[in-house]
């Protein structure tokens, strides 16, 4: 292998490491220097979080105001946020242009359900632990928001406690759910099913 | 690279495999005489020209190394995924970086210092797979959406230079697949304002990209130092283009449009720039390839016909993208015809150029197309049991006929190559 190719080979390997480090640095920078806010959210469908190792999060601030309901899919929106006395950050105003002079805002785009997506809509969870999120009554997400409105998930807060796959939330019973009855109740008006036919 | 100048290693073996057909082409093009051809042939002794059994053994080692790399890569990904929660953030990242550097280092040492070209390449391929896993696992650490197109882009950017630095077909293949995946993951963002016909825009984009990759592969074959990068580009481009046309032959694809019409919002500029630039490049490359053959009437005719076929397929992609239609029936009929001509062209070109892979790909697509057409049109007409019995019979008979045709064509290609090795007879078989 010639010297230029040797250099090119190791430069590419270094490039792979640098690319990964840059990716990490950008996220870490947002996590460390961004404004930490608590957002109210809910899993889109409690059943869907078990279909894999991540939960889809649908934020309360993702709801578009009435005047923006007919927005095109993919259209960007900026949501200005303020902190409610209970510690949760809520939407103050929705604008199509990037706000100036506003301290905290988050950038989102309209999805096909006419709601906003912020790039923080996925939370990865250990295999088989989706039920913990599904059974929690209060789901919030701690998010760091950078100066350009881009956000990074810091932590998932379930019933006031940071998500820990080894410790189920306080108000969730450790007991497994009772088994379902095997015989289904017949619908009104339907003929009774004879035991012989079953 | 070192192995370029010798007859050992994968490049040397490929060179020896190609030598008889190349000499025949040079003779027919008038570049060398029959005596010079014989002199070149005799320069490479019988021991240099690896027998088929040894070549097959080499391919087996490559296949084992590639399969081994993929299995180890998958194992590492599964290990990370299963134990992800039990490892802290920084040890996780250290494991990823350590794995990438170790695999690259080992691959480099085996390939370039110990001469284990195939196994060394397998290790470098493994490093590229681990790097891709690393990108996605870092994304997982920071809860980046699994469909975020930047993840595939980062993977592709990290692998792309190695396509040209390491002259390895598996790494070329990985690079091209990552290119297509990167653009495929970006596509939904480009056409998210489109209300219907997204599948048509996607298939058309891949058709244009397939033709671009094929055209790049074709011209690389004409340029000496780029020739090692030609074959994989041509095969990936050909399969992508044929697959896209095949997808567009289904009536249901067009019926999915509302009332038979395209109802479109704005397609983003990125998509438009991509298809225009790719189309212009295809036209330029096809013209340049034909121009390089301008001094030889026979090869110019063949390259010219291939070029016209590529331009027709390119035009079809633009028609699907830009022309609205009251009904999809016309599109379906035209694209079925186009696929039939394309497959015929692939078989003829493969036969005339002595490329077994092209013949195999063409016949495989014919088999798939016949099966698909059968199910598409018989599903609503006949009883299900009858459909499956008849499908089984069609597959058995069709498989027999296709295999027989394949064997005949491959035998003719091989015998043509053998005849061309005899002094004074080179080029006659073409």
What's this model, at a glance?
The complex is a heterodimer of chains A (198) and B (430). Chain A has 198 residues and is an alpha+beta fold.
Features:
heterodimer, A: 198 residues, alpha+beta, 2 domains, six-stranded antiparallel sheet, four-stranded antiparallel sheet, 2 helices, 10 strands, 29% strand, disordered C terminus, B: 430 residues, mainly alpha, globular, disordered N terminus
Summarize the topology.
The complex is a heterodimer of chains A (198) and B (430).
Chain A: H1 3-33, E1 35-43, E2 54-59, E3 76-83, E4 89-95, E5 105-110, E6 116-117, E7 122-124, H2 130-135, E8 139-145, E9 151-158, E10 161-162
Antiparallel strand pairs in A: 1-2, 1-8, 2-7, 3-4, 3-5, 5-6, 8-9, 9-10
Chain B: H1 9-28, H2 34-43, H3 52-83, H4 89-113, H5 117-141, H6 149-165, H7 169-190, H8 198-222, H9 230-248, H10 251-255, H11 269-292, H12 297-322, H13 329-353, H14 356-378, H15 384-421
Helix pairs in contact in B: 1-2, 1-15, 3-5, 4-5, 5-6, 6-7, 7-8, 7-9, 8-9, 8-11, 8-12, 9-13, 9-14, 11-12, 12-13, 13-14, 14-15
Describe the fold and architecture.
The complex is a heterodimer of chains A (198) and B (430). With 198 residues, chain A is an alpha+beta fold. Chain A has 2 domains: 1-33; 35-176, no CATH class. Helices cover 19% and strands 29% of the residues of chain A. Chain A has a 6-stranded antiparallel sheet. A 4-stranded antiparallel sheet of chain A has the order 4-3-5-6, with no helix packed on it. In chain A, a hairpin with a 5-residue loop joins strand 5 and strand 6. With 430 residues, chain B is an all-alpha fold. Chain B has 15 helices and no strands. In chain B, helix 3 packs parallel to helix 5, helix 9 runs parallel beside helix 14 (356-378) and helix 11 (269-292) runs antiparallel to helix 12 (297-322). Classes of the chains: A alpha+beta (198), B mainly alpha (430). The A-B interface holds A 1-2, 5-6, 8-9, 11-13, 15-17, 19-20, 23-24, 27, 53-54, 72-74, 112, 119-124, 126-127, 152-153, 165 and B 1-2, 81-82, 84-85, 93, 96-97, 100-101, 104, 108, 112, 127, 131, 134-135, 138-140, 142-146, 148, 154, 157-158, 161-162, 165-166, 189, 192-193, 265.
